[in-house]
Amino acid sequence: DVKVTQSSRYLVKRTGEKVFLECVQDMDHENMFWYRQDPGLGLRLIYFSYDVKMKEKGDIPEGYSVSREKKERFSLILESASTNQTSMYLCASIGVLMTDLDGYTFGSGTRLTVV
Amino acid sequence: GDSVTQMEGPVTLSEEAFLTINCTYTATGYPSLFWYVQYPGEGLQLLLKATKADDKGSNKGFEATYRKETTSFHLEKGSVQVSDSAVYFCALQPGGGNKLVFGAGTILRVKS
Known about the structure:
The complex is a heterodimer. By secondary structure, chain A is mostly beta strands. Helix content of chain A is 0%, strand content 52%. Chain A has no helices and eleven strands. Chain B is mainly beta. Chain B is built from no helices and twelve strands. The interface between A and B is medium-sized, with 25 and 20 residues.
C-alpha cells in the first residue's frame, strides 16, 4: 500500500514563526499536493508539485511556499505564521499513469494551531 | 471551472437507517468521481469510485452510481452503523488530469 506520512499530527506555533510541514510518500509518485481543511470549506488546494523542483500554486497560496528537492518529499512552509493559518493540513500524492484512477492517497494530517 | 456540490450537514441518523448524501458536479469532459471518508482525527480514505457513466462504485455497504444525465454521484447505504460516523467528501478528477476537486464535505452522525 502507498503510504503518505506527515511528520507531525499536532503542532502549536507562535505568530510570526517560520513553520515547516513535512510530507513523505513511498510509492514513487510524481504528483504531490498540500491542502488545508477548514469546517464548512472542505479541502482547499494550497500548492502542488508534479515533479522534483517543480511547483504550481493552487487556489490559496498566499502566505505559503513549498519545496520539493526529492521526489518522495514535499514540504509546506509558512513563512510567517498567522492565526488565520490555524487549520488541518493534508498532504496527498498520486502517480501519472493513466491507469492510476484511485484518486489520491492522503496522509493523516497535521493539525496546526498558531497562537 | 470544475466544481462539486454536496448536501450540507450534519446529517444525523439512527442506527440501521437508510443514508443518502447528495453530490452533484460540474465538469467538462469525462471526469472520474470519488467518495472519500474521514474518520475523526484521521486523513481521508478512498471509499469508492466510478470512472465512467453508469458505473456503480461500492465498498463497505456504500454505493454510488455515476449519472451523467443528472451530473450526480449520490452516496447511499441501506443500514448505517455508529462506526460510519465520519465526514464524507465527494470529489471529481477531470479527464486526463491529476488534480482532484472536492466538495465541502458532509458530516454524518449515527446514534445508537
